[in-house]
Amino acid sequence: MPSTSASAVPKPLTSYRKYWARRFGIAPFLPMSRAEMDELGWDACDVILVTGDAYIDHPSFGMALVGRLLEAQGFRVGIISQPDWHSAEAFRSLGRPTLFFGITAGNMDSMVNRYTADRKIRSDDAYTPNGEANKRPDRTVIVYSQRAREAYPDSAVVIGSIEASLRRIAHYDYWSEKVRRSILPDSKADLLLFGNAERALVELAHRLAAGVPIETIRDLRGSAFMVPPGWLPGEGWQVAEAKTVDTPGAVHPHPDPYLMTASAPAAPASDGTPQAIRFHSKSERLAARKEERAHTVVRLPSFEQVSADPVLYAHASRTFHLESNPGNARAMVQSHGVGPGRRDVWLNPPPLPLATFEMDHVYGLPYARAPHPSYGAAKIPAWEMIRYSVNIMRGCFGGCTFCSITEHEGRIIQSRSEASILHEIEEIRDKTPGFTGVISDVGGPTANMYRMACKSQEIESACRKLSCVFPDVCENLGTDHAPLIQLYRKARALPGIKKVLVSSGLRYDLAVRSPEYVKELVTHHVGGYLKIAPEHIAAGPLSKMMKPGIGSYDKFKELFEKFSKEAGKEQYLIPYFIAAHPGTTDEDMLELAIWLKRGGFRLDQVQTFLPTPLAMATAMYHTEKNPLHKVTQISEQVAVVRSGRQRRLHKAFLRYHDPENWPLLREALRHMGRADLIGNGKKHLVPAFQPAGTGKLTPLAGRTQATRRVR
To answer: Lowest-confidence range among 77-81, 207-211, 260-264?
Structure first.
């Protein structure tokens, strides 16, 4: 079995010999019907991608990117978009794929897409023509996989996208309020590709085309699959229990791979083998350490264990995240089931990041940059939002515990070249109907991490930190904004480009390190408002989010206002906050509400914490433990907001100005001993009067009648 070591040089995406079907050329759109296949001269599709989104041939949409990438390798790729899942008939519409079905829920997790943070069904779907709701099933990947298997039982089924990535091991499911097993046994897929899966996908397609059975493909980084109990890839492998990675008890420090020692070799064991090996150089020690890790699998607590024991769930979450750096991550395995029916879920290490030239290749493929013609004049809200935007990078090293980017895209930034980005802007200018000269966004998961990286590849490959910017910006992180400043200047200088906006979220604790960047941004790239996400101001929730203190926000706000004034522009910051995040108390939300009132902020849109699978904040929510530190029975307890009423209260504090929230806030303030904040003056948070027809309140359970009369 080939090594999964990070030291192995990855095969470039552009180095494969093209599959024979390349002779058919480039499709104007990947076909969605037999008639389109006939026009292209195809008798079959090699790969059929099934997606819960409308098919938009644009690199911001996962299935278009994956489809065009496989097409560039010479494969014939068809798309089945938003099929009727009530039977297998729609899954037969393009015939049997010669290689495999690729199943995805789409750009969003299907449960997040369909339900609000309060578990209410959404009235629309941004990834569907005309925003129509209910065009995909709950747990889309599972349902589509089962239907594809029903349509063609002998076809290989490969699952991927964010929904599959976030469910690759046992995980807490907010919508059913229980721990669910890995998505692999439920979907019965042959293989799961997690993260940005270009490398694994291209290699997989070529191996299958060469006749390699999918059940024998077990060495792809970024893949997960089911194996019999005790299975190992080959000789020389060892199993490490999760407690050796992060013991739920006493602290055992990780060995330093750079440690040099002048001490004599340890005495040999009774069998004559050395108890420890001493190396003459740092490079020797590092190489041996990498080789050992490349042939070690970490056994996580089983599905049954994490389902029954919150401490073990939090411990497993911490272990999982400590093994997320592609430079040093080991394989992981987790048992599912007991007795004869037991199977293991095996996870190979995460995929190696794409090099810049590979990113350019992926984003430079011949996309039509439009929705499939079958949608006619229908409006697809997600397309309307991104049609004039450009994605310049991937990944995020922020490590925010409530965010799924880390679990899916990883912490290492993958950036496109300046030339590639500028070319795409010109493509938008020349080929996208309705373009008025305004690029709506030049960004990514975070607007200002472009080309940022660790100053040392050795340090990066050995690092096990969960964030590069918490509790402060790491001294080894390069935070130079000069490449981004240069990109902005060149982009807005292109002929026909009137304005280039930055709409992606900004990491302001990085931005304040470069006042020149803030000046460039504020002077030229803000359309009157700039979104920014402090998320909270209190130390309790911020420490559980891994977000910087409000002091960084204040510094950025000072620079923003200074440079806006110098540019002669009236511009505003729009701060985003999260209500009911683990670690947040009622008093924390009151403190935030007072801060908002003093600052004159009246928020229209607020976010209530939504526990998504695998996120560390979700582990906090489920277990009331803090996996950012050692997890034991007596380790830190985390305050968690579960009841619907308390979640509404925390949200109401963010919208203190809404009359509908005043009765709830008045009752809470009295209960908290802060009735002094009720009144009609500037110092008060909510008024004493209530406008007619607003603010109906259901009394709190367990409160006395006397308390209710005070209201």
So the answer is: 260-264
Q: What does residue 207 show for φ and ψ, rounded to 5 degrees?
A: -65, -45
Q: Which two tokens stand for residue 371?
A: 């929705």
Q: Is residue 283 part of a domain?
A: no
What is the span of the domain harbouring residue 581?
388-657
The neighbouring-strand residues paired with 47 are 77, 100
For the chain, helix (H) and strand (E) counts, in that order, are 26, 23
Q: How many residues appear in the chain?
A: 711
Q: What is the pLDDT of residue 279?
A: 54
Output phi, psi for 121, to 5 deg.
Answer: -70, 130
Last residue of a domain, one of 619, 636, 657: 657
Strands 572-579 and 607-608: parallel
Between CA 212 and CA 436 the distance in angstroms is 50
8 A C-beta contact, residue 160 and residue 187: no
Distance between CA atoms of residues 317 and 315, nearest Å? 5
Pull the structure tokens for residue 304.
Answer: 């049954």
Q: For residue 334, what are the β-bridge partners?
A: 345
Q: Looking at per-residue confidence, does 283 or 419 come out higher?
A: 419
- Which runs of E-coded beta strand occur in 328-425? 331-336, 343-347, 370-371, 389-391, 393-394, 414-415
Strands 331-336 and 343-347: antiparallel
Q: Which residue is associated with the tokens 């003093």?
A: 598
* pTM for this entry: 0.91
